[in-house]
Predict the 3D structure of the following.
Amino acid sequence: MDRARNHRRLAPLAIVAAVAAAAVTAAPAEAQDGGRYRVLVPALAPQAGAKDNFGKDVGKEVRKALDDFATHAPVEDKVLKDALKKFGLKEEDIRDCIKARQLAVQIGAELVMCGEYSESGNERQVTTKFVVPTTGEEFEVAPFAASQAKQAAAQIAGAFEQYLGQLRLAVFCNDELQRQAWDAAIEQCGKVVEANPNSAANQYNLASAYMNAGQDDVALATFEKAIEINPVHQEAILAAGVVAARLGQQEKSQRYLHQYLELNPGDQQVRLKIAADIAAAGDPRGALMLVEEGGTISTADADVTTLQYAGHFALAAAREAIENAGQNGNGDVSPDVQGLLEKALGYYNRAFDASTDEPDVTMLTNMLVAYRLLERFDEAIAFGERAIQRVPNDATLLSAYADALAAGGRKDQAVAMLNRVTQIDPQYAVNARLGSWQLEDGNLSAAQAAFRKALQNGEVASGDDLARPIFAQGYNNHHKNKRYDTAISYYNVAREFATSSATTGMINFFHGYALFQKALEMQKPSTAASARASLPVFQEAKRWLEQAGGYTEQAQQRQQLLQNVDQYIEIQNALIKRG
């Protein structure tokens, strides 16, 4: 089942639609002052009693190497000294990576090099990394051994060149995300992840491309990799919750969403937006739980918007349950569905009473739907009267009110209300419903005229959508009660609208079957006179049965009927000849 049916699209799925714009890359968008990106390069920190000079020399040599890069440059010595003085720091202090990042943010440096080393004989074991100070994104240089500072600096500079290659790939990845070219984004972002799989941002970007390309299984797994790398990556946590909902993994979805809300406590608007995303992803019941868990909806001062959305989620959850259970929504509802519908009406009525402005039409029409699903027709009509007083000229609302009137047995008033609808909007689809009501009342010619207009105006996807209810009315109300001529009149009208061979074949089959049953009654006297009267009816029955090949469901029975018809035709001919 498609878990994102149109009737459940209560709000735009912003996390999906705008995920490319939210994608994070480690490359800054613009170099400071239009020049090269600045890198803060402190001395490496000695470990376990290692000599201090090596770390200072490595830092000095790395700064020299970076000065030759076209896109990056070390923070100038004067700028660094002034900043250290301003913030009361010593050069030794910024060997600590956290303090170095904090200082980099203050002076606007785009990257920080952090590192340490230990000694083993004449060699030093060196570990370094480059960090984006504002986001914490890291590029780790593979640990290596070196005996000389220049050798170590060359190793670090070479690794940094590789890092810049990754950033260039990241730019291509981000460009494809911005263009919403999802297949190309998967390719480019995949290259970035291959180059640096330990970056949460890289994993997030690739997951975003997969999500927008509709590859939800892979997207969820990739978002989870980003979360594993950075457990507080809020965008990845939220996206994982949304994608899990789309995959029908409600328990996992709720876990991620609650994790996200823990990072954003007390923000009801954030909670409401997430709930809307989850409902649009196909989990309206989970969306309702999120809103209700917020607590504010149970208070007397709950805002109208929250109440409206809670009603939307409850109604959508009820409709989903009806569909999953194969119920028709005409009173045959489970206690669970009834509870959801009652809850929807409760929230909607509170919003309606609290609204000082013109009420939301979607809410009003949904209330009429909920009343009808509960078969509380009198209440639906009473509420509809109040609603159209508040919003008197909205075609959608008047149309829903007409449905409520018809369901409550007030067909004349319903027809009059649809006439008002067409006065407001001449293009509004009303003819198919008018035809259905006429059909229910047994007015076949009026239904036929209305259905012709509906077909002409494109109100139905296919003529079969009109042919089948006409056929069903003829068969259930007349054919089964042996009113064969009346049933045939319905079959003739239904055939006018049928478009598929299956529907046409079905109509022809039962038309022929009705004639056969009628002829059986006519031939019972077994006289020459009864034979002359029944023979053309048998012959016509045969003609229609022969044209019923598209009705494959009764292929075997059709062949048997044709054999029976032929036998009766022979009998009638014999009776006529003998008589």
User: Anything to note?
Assistant: The chain has 26 helices and six strands.
